[in-house]
Amino acid sequence: MKSFGSILAVSLLALSVTGQAMAQADTPPPYMTADHYMRSSKLIGMTVVNDHNEKIGVLDDINLPTAGGEVTAILSVGGFLGIGEKLVKVPLSHVHFQTDKPAAPMMPDGSKAALTAMPKYTYYMGGN
Q1: pLDDT tens-digit profile of 111-125?
Q2: Residue range 81-106, pLDDT digits in tens
Q3: 14 and 59, same structural domain?
Q4: CA dist 2 to 6, 7, 8, 10, Å?
Q5: pLDDT tens for residues 66-75?
Q6: Cα dihedral sign for 78, 81, 84, 90?
Q7: Is 105 within the bounds of a domain?
Q8: The model scores a pTM over 0.85
Q9: What's the structural domain count of the chain?
Q10: Angle value at C-alpha 119, between 113 and 123, nearest 5 degrees
Q11: CA angle at residue 76 from 68 to 41, to 5 degrees?
């Protein structure tokens, strides 16, 4: 009878761990809303990786065109500890976001060298 109790205890423990893991898998990433929209305020600052899980940049901003057109992502690339970094602009459609699990945004086939070789992007500050 003692072995039955041990088996029952181990089974209940396994079910509780499995239930917790399943609940975590169903939790959307912090940048997703309940109605399946992405919150730009939560995306800014996220590390962007390539399909080899190598860090290739950081999402600095998202630009929305006023007259329609393509939404762009501004990535901070290159540099070390904030020194020597530059901003580059890529179509947001090139950055893939996981909607079913917390993960870094990904640019398939992206490389730090290719992004660093892109023209520097500068925000227009107008007037002053």
Answers
A1: 889 999 999 999 887
A2: 667 789 999 999 999 987 666 677 88
A3: no
A4: 6, 9, 10, 12
A5: 988 999 999 9
A6: positive
A7: yes
A8: no
A9: 2
A10: 125
A11: 60
